[in-house]
Amino acid sequence: MFYSRLDNYTVLDIMNTNLLKIPGDMNMRNAIKQMLDKNVEDLIIVDKEENIVGIMSFMDMMRAMKDIPKGNSFDDKITKYAMKDVIVIDGNAKAIEARNIMQQKGIGRLPVVVNNRLVGIIRVREILNEVYGRIDDTMQTFRHILDNLHEAVCVVNKDGVVVLWCGKAEKLYGVKEEEIVGKKLEELFPTGLLLKVLEGKKPIENVLHSPREGNYVNISAMPLFSNGELIGAVSTDRDITEVRNLSLELEATKEKLDYLQMEVNKISEDKYSFGQALGKSDAIKEKIDRAMQVASTTSSVLIRGESGTGKEVFARAIHQASGRKGPFIAINCSAIPENLFESEMFGYEGGAFTGALNKGKIGKIELANKGTLFLDEIGDMPLYMQAKLLRVLQERQVVRVGGDKAIDIDVRIISATHRDLKAMVKEGKFREDLYYRLNVVSLEIPNLKDRKEDIPMFVKHFMEEFCKENNIFTPRITPEVFQVLMNHHWPGNVRELKNTVEHLVVFSKEGEIKVESLPEHLLGRLAHHEEMEVPYDLQENIKRIEIDTIKRAMETAEGNKAQAAKLLNIPRSTLYYKIKFYDLVDYL
């Protein structure tokens, strides 16, 4: 009777299509995550050609995890622990064949293939659901299979009386078979999921339950019908205690990472805040005020200035002041090969082109969602990419390379260049429509030589930063060295000054930066200056140098005596005295 019932079905009739396929090079950590996310009981491991190379059940995973950290690792490839000799069954085979294979091999699942292509999986649960007609006749047949399953299986009749309680159920719940079989389930488990299934006559899947403190179970249950009449219900329970604990551990780790990220953001906010890293000179104050005014808006900003003036630092300061929750993502348009530009900006789907990652890759624009995208050296962006970027700005959507799904984005664009974009527009090297889209607000960053009063602040900042990073004492800088720094033209701007300060600290001696600590090119300028000193009258030389130095300091400070005294590293009263002593009437 039982066998004739199975003959009425093919494997395709009763198989389950809810399965999870993963590549063989995936590690255990990601496999566990996918298994939890997809709520599946087992996973099928396939190669690049979709051939089945392994199978692993939930409990197989648990056994492998028990040896962590003794020998196994969450970073091991999943194929290390999977069953390699996978038995499959053709979808057109009779269900009786599946039953016979499972009984003979003592296995609880069979992948189903049609024309060598994986189409589903058949488990004991599927067989029970379709052929469960008379439990008394089938009990002996399935007993051996059920006792060898990794899941705990319980079967009740239509009155809620337990008729099957397999060995794994005994271990999981601590209830012996003789203590429960023949009794109503509600006597031992008043809130049992099977009782709800009998009442509602509908399956309930993947319910988390804690039968004992510190013990967690995932339960699925379904009603059993014969000729349209309810005759009972079956449940399968998976012990997920270790995975649950792992999940809690991962969640705790994530919280720690979130906290660390918050701390890093605080550091970044201090490092790139207005006034802290941009300068305090009159030449830069107007730019800072303008940037602060536009920071809280979504307007695009174009920052212009020579190399090394601090355009990216300025852009980061705008982002920090904007209050945008997303990240600051920087792209140097001159550093990306033209053939990689599109995939770098927009990302790509898995297998979109030769060499692409199987899982695909998110693009920089998508990464900057809710934040700021900084396009440095925008003048070096290829024309074909300019058209694509313009479309993104207009539609507020991106489509990954090889994909067809439009992804909504909310990105604020800040771009920077040392080129004359207007001239490039006239020459046809830059799109006019994109230029006006980017140049909503324009900021011109002055060169360091035009704001030398910021040099003392930068020198102090770079010295403290470098010494802190290298855990060394901050040396004292002598007035002679400071004078050389103030007189230098700084063609490399702030970047050159930073590198020079690091050189000075490295070659300082006995906690002091002296003339001999200067780089060779600055020493050469100093030597050239000294060679021009022909008179040997010491007093006259001192007088001439003091007058010349005071004049340059007053010009740099634009007549501000307090600022000039700070540059000269002397008290303001001494500066007043020397101006009167040398009769410098233009500065009285």
UniProtKB/TrEMBL annotation:
The keyword Calcium belongs to this UniProt entry's keyword annotation: no
GO molecular function: ATP binding; sequence-specific DNA binding
Coiled coil stretches, renumbered: 243-270
CBS domain location: 15-74, 82-138
Cross-referenced InterPro entries: AAA+_ATPase (IPR003593), AAA_lid_NorR (IPR058031), CBS_dom (IPR000644), CBS_dom_sf (IPR046342), Homeodomain-like_sf (IPR009057), HTH_Fis (IPR002197), P-loop_NTPase (IPR027417), PAS (IPR000014)
PANTHER family, sorted: C4-DICARBOXYLATE TRANSPORT TRANSCRIPTIONAL REGULATORY PROTEIN DCTD (PTHR32071:SF57), TRANSCRIPTIONAL REGULATORY PROTEIN (PTHR32071)
Protein name: PAS domain S-box-containing protein
Organism: Anaerovirgula multivorans
